[in-house]
């Protein structure tokens, strides 16, 4: 009886350590994901002119909430219409943020570009879901408002 309890406890500890190493949140950690969506700017400033500058006014921001760098390679962010942004080879530094713009531009450590020629985020209601390379939901942020142009998550 004691051996079975020890085996279960060891399994739980090992599974938790593996999830932490991958940057995946468990239900106990769900309140503070290691990487989280902190803002969605869903209605770019001014008129929707469909220029690259206007499209890049739409963006989301991710933040690494830990004191260690996190690989976001093959991580995704998707909306309710299943538009999917996939990170290429990318590491987010400890405590750092990255802004992902909808339009085109030159990728840097602080700014990434989806490369699209049209808007993604609905101006009234939508949901952004961040998933790890393994497909596990890490964080999500939804909004339902036309009173403001962005959502702080």
Number of helices: 2
Tell me the overall shape: globular
Low-confidence region ranges = 1-22, 24-29
H/E element order: HEHEEEEEEEEEE
Helix content: 10-25%
Mean pLDDT over the full residue set? 86
Q: How would you describe the oligomerization state of the chains in this entry?
A: single chain
Structural class designation: alpha+beta
In total, how many beta strands? 11
Major β-sheet annotation: 5 strands, mixed
Q: How much of the residues is beta strand, in percent?
A: 25-35%
Q: Give the radius of gyration.
A: 18 Å
> What separation lies between the terminal Cα atoms?
46 Å
Can you describe what's shown?
The strands form three sheets. Strands 8-7-2-1-11 form a five-stranded mixed beta sheet, with no helix packed on it. By secondary structure, it is α+β, with helices and mostly antiparallel strands. Strand 4 and strand 5 form a beta hairpin. The protein has helices at 2-22, 52-55; strands spanning 35-41, 59-64, 70-71, 76-78, 84-86, 91-92, 97-101, 111-113, 125-131, 137-144, 150-152.
List the helices and strands and how they pair.
Layout lengths: L1 H21 L12 E7 L10 H4 L3 E6 L5 E2 L4 E3 L5 E3 L4 E2 L4 E5 L9 E3 L11 E7 L5 E8 L5 E3 L1
Parallel strand pairs: 7-8
Antiparallel strand pairs: 1-2, 1-11, 2-7, 3-6, 4-5, 4-9, 9-10
